[in-house]
């Protein structure tokens, strides 16, 4: 459980920076809208990072806490620092990352439920709700 939560924590750190990377490097006619949307997304990830770190402490584990460890544990791929005006592509990449986070949260919830670990399970419920909503919104925008 602790290991899986640390992978999720590391994924969230990488994903936070990936969203900010796209926020900085998005270009083109849709800049204003997408730039703002990406900021909203990374601001949504920030409190989740803190919650998962503290959840690991609450179950008497040790959250990974430096960049070297985050990169060693993360499964989400970092993005290049290149200007990108293909908004559809940006959201395709992000949708896959949100799906990855959703799968991780569901996996952890299933483990927690097996062990009657209500605290971890409840924390995963929040993430599952949040990622499902973003995935749905990106899908709507891509139609
Ligand atoms: Fe900004």
UniProtKB/TrEMBL annotation:
Pfam short name (any one): Ferritin
Name by which UniProt lists this protein: Metalloregulation DNA-binding stress protein
Keyword Zinc-finger: no
Native source species: Peptoniphilus indolicus
Keyword RNA-binding: no
Ferritin/DPS domain mapped to chain residues: 3-139
Keywords: DNA-binding
One MF term in the entry's GO annotations: ferric iron binding
Family, per entry: Belongs to the Dps family.
